[in-house]
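Archive record
______________

***
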Amino acid sequence: MARGADLFVVCKNCGSEVSPYVTECPYCGQRVRKRAPKIERGAQRPAEKPRRSRRSSSAPRLGRLRPGELPGLRTEGRPVVTIAIVAGAFLAYLAAVAGAFDPLNAIIFGKLDGEWWRIFTAPFVHLSGGGTIFAGGAYQFATMVAIGVFGTMLERRRGAVAVLVIAVLAGAGGMLAAASLDDFPIAAGSNGLALGLLCAWAVPNLLAWRRGDEWEGDLLGTAVMAAVLLLMPVAVDIADAVAGVTGAVVGLVIGLVLARLPARG
């Protein structure tokens, strides 16, 4: 029987060549030896093929998540622009309810007549002089939820500058369109701004859906929220339909531009 570094031994029963490290023949079951030989320390083991890692060596490795960070969603600081928009609208609402200023002096009420600054203040006001607190509160709640959700995700994906540009063009641009197209416009609130952020965020998912690829967001929930914002003028007088549609168009156009650029790392 072979010893030492022999590669195999021969079974006396069936004549098969078997490993020297087994005690029974795997072919006929005949006992080949009483016990397997010991492997000496330092003895060279048969070379093993290196296993290929499923992860490419060039693939980036994710580090430990930061406090408040979700898996798969890297954050670079707080969404400061989104927070500023929500905080500004909330403070304006409290000031209007407390009587600190007349909302009619900050919203679109008739033609601008040189008061161009109203297009920038109107998106933050959700009460008119004759509007009820309940209607204004419900209007603000719907718009702030949309801004908080989609503004935060868009700011983390594209940065603060992108959200600021969309907020100005969709919010103020929507109010400018309402003041220019309506005969006697009465417009206020953030429906155009919210729709701009929502549509800009949804564009990459819509493009993936059109290509038949997988998308990361909830398009059904997004569509429901968009419908609520677009139909808001039916229930609230100061929510202008022209401002809302203009904000949605601005968001879609900017979203298509951003979709051609690499996402923020």
